[in-house]
Amino acid sequence: MYLIFLVLSTIISLILSYVSYKYRYWERKGVPQLKPQFFFGSFFELDSIHKTKLIRKVYQQFKDGKTKIAGTYVYTKPAVVILDFEIIKSILIKDFNYFLDRFANRSENMTGPLDMQLFLCPGDKWRHLRIKLTPTFTSLKMKGMFPTVLEVAKQLDAAFRLHVSKTPNEDMELHEMMARYTTDIIGHCAFGVECNSLKDPNVEFRHMGRKVFYPQYFSIRWRIFQLTYPHLFKIFTFFNYRRFALDVEQFITHLVRETVRIREEQNIKRNDFLNLLMEMRHQKDENGQPLMTTENMAAQVFAFFIAGFETSSSNLSFGIYELAKNPHIQDKLRAEIMSVMAKHNGKLTYEAIQDMTYLDCVMTETIRMYPALAAITRITTEDYKIPGMDVVIEKDTHVWIPAKEIHYDPDVYENPTEFRPERFSPEEVQKRHPQAFLGFGDGPRNCIGLRFARMEVRVGLITLLTNYRFTTTEKTPKHVEISKYSSVLVPHSKLYVKVEKL
Does residue 31 surpass a pLDDT of 90? Predict the structure, then answer.
């Protein structure tokens, strides 16, 4: 009995010594750090999948104008939060080759058919794929997809008209309606299929979108543990660690395979993302291999789906919510829309939306207040010496750039909780550091679908503001509650507004 007690005591002592040593990692480097708690690290109250509270804690404690980086821990994994704009610029742009990867995306964890998508690809695989896909997101390609987006916008208008005519005194919940709009656009432009979720909210596409962005976690702490130590779940396969649900993988893969088969058999050509990928399938690389296999196509189309669906629907929802709270901004934006439309003979064209400068300010201010991600994440691919500091970030260290905290820093944006589109006039933008706005990331690994996302949001806002007025009611929340269970920042609370036909 004594021997068992001795062995257990020794094991516990070794574990405590090991964890204690791990939690002095940043102190040994001379980097200030949050005080960690045993095993859970710096953030014992781990109640959010996107770690917003942890990043806010670091930012508020160490953002003093002198501290450039700060250390923290998730469980025993060290992570560094970058507080200095020039270092952020170096990481995202100047020294990008040291930070090719996002830290959830290492190659040893890429197992599912949808994992080899652009957003998740590591290192050289990402670089090669980005080069292949970049030509599909040019202005010319976006212009080709514009008529399809317009067609879905007409269906959005029809859905709003139906709501107003049937239930004129009932408030509308914005986020669900906007999610159905962007689902239908992605269905058309990425998969080449008609989803019709604006007519039927229970279609399979909408169901799959909910599964991807609103997964049901048994425990947020357990999910964070999975994301922090993915190699453990690679080894112990009985944990059934999957990035995406099996039925989602099967649905997307089958849909792409069948759509490609039908198009090739019937020689169907369309101005959509899938058609552009199909053209790549018939091109060869330097080794004589197809530029794009069917499996690669399914992964990229799925990336288009997850990047352009929830983020854009949230941006639309938050935008209309803020316009309802700020009627003078809504009136000013509507006046610009009407003025530009008049110059284009009353037609909404691709060229017309480029002329709506205040609309761009409104969209960008919405993204500042409600960015898709709380932080931009990177991992060092080799040891990296911080410019101007005697600190080396070791290979495989997690790096967080606190986008949302920067967007709400009163030293960067005066009265940051106020909705002020004028912040993004050319004159005001010139006064700030280039990395003061990180709504779409920055550098070579920024959002490749930026043009498409802004196009679908622009068209949605123009369509709705041309035909409807939005106002707040007693049901409209004073502040938006963000979901703890989604990897992107989406509303948890219902966004109700009153809709009136103009």
Answer: yes
